[in-house]
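Readers of this paper often ask what the protein records in our data store actually look like. An entry from our holdings is shown next, in its original layout:
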Amino acid sequence: MRKLFKKPILILAALSIILASCGDDDGTVITPSAGTISGGPFTFVVDGSSDFVSGITVSDDAVGTNSSWVITDDNNNILGLPGTIADLEGVDFDAAGAGICFIWYIRYEEGLTGLEMGMNTSALSGSYDLSNSIMVTRNANATMTLDLSGLEDLGDDFVYEGWVLVDGSPVSTGTFTVDDSGDLSATTFPVNGVTLASATKFILTIEPAEDSDPAPSDQKLIAGDFDGNTATVSTATEPALGDFSNAAGTYFLRTPTDEGDGVNNGNDIYGIWFGTPGAPPTANFTLPTLGDGWIYEGWVVTENGPISTGTFRDFGAVDSGNPLSSTVNNVGPPIPGEDFFVAPAGSSDTYPIDMRGQTVVISVEPVPDNSPNPFLLKPLLSMIATDAETAPTAHDFGQNLGSLPTGSVSR
């Protein structure tokens, strides 16, 4: 183990050992007592940044003419002798490298021997008392490596953050961004070696770029359990958002929102609804229930880009709104969907929009959402045939599991 002190500190420590009389002027013999020291324990990471102890105190019952602080290794070999608490708080423990050491307090009288750098406390001889000790653990950093694919640029307001789970508690491993090509801004991260070795799971979340909350967000995207030194990550491992391996659903073409009298107006190619047609239509999704950090959103993608049909959590209820539907019966049936009659401001599409030949998508969106466009998670997708039949015919979604991020984490 390297010594904890540079040359000036060693000189200061040496000068602090001043031997005095073992009794006062009237001949009373003093029996030293080091009292009790409080504070710590301290745990640092050896990363090139200075690490100092603070807040250590000595009880009021300490007695003895002379005093010093003592730093030893885990075999009680003396590494340093700071004379005062200020000297102790000036010791840079990062400079010592990885290992364990102990802080003690000593009170002593004239004639003490063995209180020297390099000696062992077992060799102390004379009138003295050594206090209890405080442990200082100096952990080495280890490297965690991410090999992830399928992530996308989150924009300026959000970042990805990695976490490892240790004894059930999350520990951050750092943040990163992803560019337009899907490349991570960083793939290796220094992590406390003991922490990383003890980790049982890796979790990736989406966090605000300016984040005042030290805890993980609800937007837990992927996760994986460590098996040896590797964790295979996906959306299917808790507490990530869910298992989409059996994702399925149906949709149908129908325009119920322009039928004030319940009579079909014969224009069903202008609307799309998610479920099984009927009176009333019913839900027909096989998708995981999402937590608070996520919500489903429907989309129709035309040659001019994606158009939202609304967000939803409940497959058997109306979605977040029907701004494009007819005002005659705007709410529509008790399932998510949209009729495309009313053009929004600035639209490049010509309304009403024929659903045939378009692409329909069910995405999973973060809450709060980072973009007005579909998020990277698009578990269900279908190209609507140009000759697709309207209701009562239902059409199956296709799985689009390639849109889900995957990869591995190694330590």
In short: Residues 7-15 form the longest helix (9 residues).
